[in-house]
Design brief:
The protein is an all-alpha fold. The protein has helices at residues 2-8, 11-19, 37-49, 53-64, 79-86, 90-103, 108-121, 124-137, 146-157.
Length: 159
């Protein structure tokens, strides 16, 4: 997986894995054609982590043109929004986070990331509102999770 290779700094493995994505994406899904969302996501992830932001954004756009696997825990729907956020393209990130929230208004981390984008942009009321919503939607989260700790702190500081 490119993510673990990146974490380990294994450039040779990253190069080898990237060659396989998505051109040679072959996998057995019991007769069902595999979605290309995963290989495009992973290629975009590698691009983003290696500083090729423009390439990552285009690759994430391509990933989102392909349907997510119905069985996947994470459909990577927020990949483009997160790339925009990392690139400090805040208006684009906010628009993309809001698009996803229209699909799933109870996606906790989207509210958290949207709050961060609004805060970075200086829109503190919107930031506080989304931190609050994050904490409401994920009320059962472990209180030791860094994003929960940070959201609680930011809500009190933004009052």
């Amino acid at each position: 997986m490119p993510a673990s290779a990146l974490a380990l700094g294994d450039k040779r493995q990253i190069e080898e894995l990237t060659k396989q994505l998505p051109a040679n994406w072959q996998s057995s899904f019991r007769g069902v054609r595999a979605t290309l969302r995963f290989p495009y996501y992973f290629r975009g992830y590698v691009d983003l982590k290696e500083g090729r932001v423009a390439e990552a954004i285009e690759t994430f756009k391509e990933a989102l043109r392909h349907y997510p696997a119905y069985w996947a825990t994470d459909p990577y729907e927020d990949c483009l929004a997160n790339a925009y956020f990392e690139a400090n393209m805040l208006d684009e990130a906010i628009a993309e986070y809001n698009r996803i929230l229209r699909l799933n208004p109870n996606y906790p981390l989207l509210h958290y990331h949207l709050a961060q984008a609004y805060e970075r942009k200086g829109e503190y009321d919107q930031a506080r509102s989304n931190y609050d919503r994050f904490l409401q939607v994920w009320a059962t989260a472990d209180p030791d999770i860094p994003s929960v700790i940070n959201a609680k702190r930011r809500v009190s500081e933004l009052r």
